[in-house]
Amino acid sequence: MNVTINESWKQRLSSEFEKPYFHQLVDFVKSEYSQYKVYPPGKEIFNAFDHSPFEETRVVIIGQDPYHGVGQANGLCFSVSDGIRMPPSLINIFKEIENDMGKPMPLSGNLERWANQGVLLLNATLTVRASSPGSHQNKGWEEFTDAVIHVLNEEKKNLVFMLWGSYAQKKGLIIDRNKHLVLESAHPSPFAAHRGFFGNRHFSKCNTYLMEHGLKPIDW
């Protein structure tokens, strides 16, 4: 199956695109886009991969679902497009960066600037029906994104994985802690941030690890 995705990822995920589950997933997603309002826009489904080619990926942040509100989702987990009001979880992420790194809250919640530095902003599920959170779960996306994590774990070393909340932590169980740095804490949502996300200092810890391994730090 010909999937429009960054070539470096296409080479490594080509076997997934031929599996029965992926064909069924594509049929489901096409049907949803034809019948309902679905986010993100079709051309942005694989945005995370297009902005962070395999060779350049140094950090992986795992989310769950795309945002399901108008104009929010842009194919990067936790990110919203320019001009869109920041959701509470993203505000809390920037609050932690400010406390950890001393960087003031930005005007835009568009995280393309992170992705372009090699931060793979990977949702477990890459599409969602408008105003219907979880509507595209258990349709095949999770199997595909597990394969993404597997290939990163196997073929790269000294990656930093940020796993916020129990869902991301379960998805990251396959990661080899001897090859990579795995940072875990509570989720940045308002319901959980005060239970360990605030004060986790993941952003400075990430940069320290990258520099210790001769890699360029991220400008958060």
Characterise the protein shown here.
- The protein is of the alpha/beta class and 220 residues long.
- The chain is 37% helix and 11% strand.
- Strand 5 (160-164), helix 7 (166-171) and strand 6 form a beta-alpha-beta unit.
- The protein is globular.
- The relative contact order is 0.17.
Proportion of helical residues: 25-40%
What's the order of the H and E elements?
HHEHEHHEEHEHEH
DSSP summary, beta strand count = 6
Q: What's the end-to-end separation, in Å?
A: 36 Å
Strands of the widest sheet, in order across it, are 3-2-5-6
Structural class: alpha/beta
The assembly state of the depicted protein chains is single chain
What is the overall shape? globular
- How can the largest sheet be summarized? 4 strands, parallel
> How many whole angstroms does the radius of gyration measure?
17 Å
Q: Please tally the helical runs, counting DSSP H or I stretches of 4 or more residues.
A: 8
Runs with pLDDT <50, length 5+? none
Mean pLDDT across all amino acids: 97
Proportion in β-strands: 5-15%
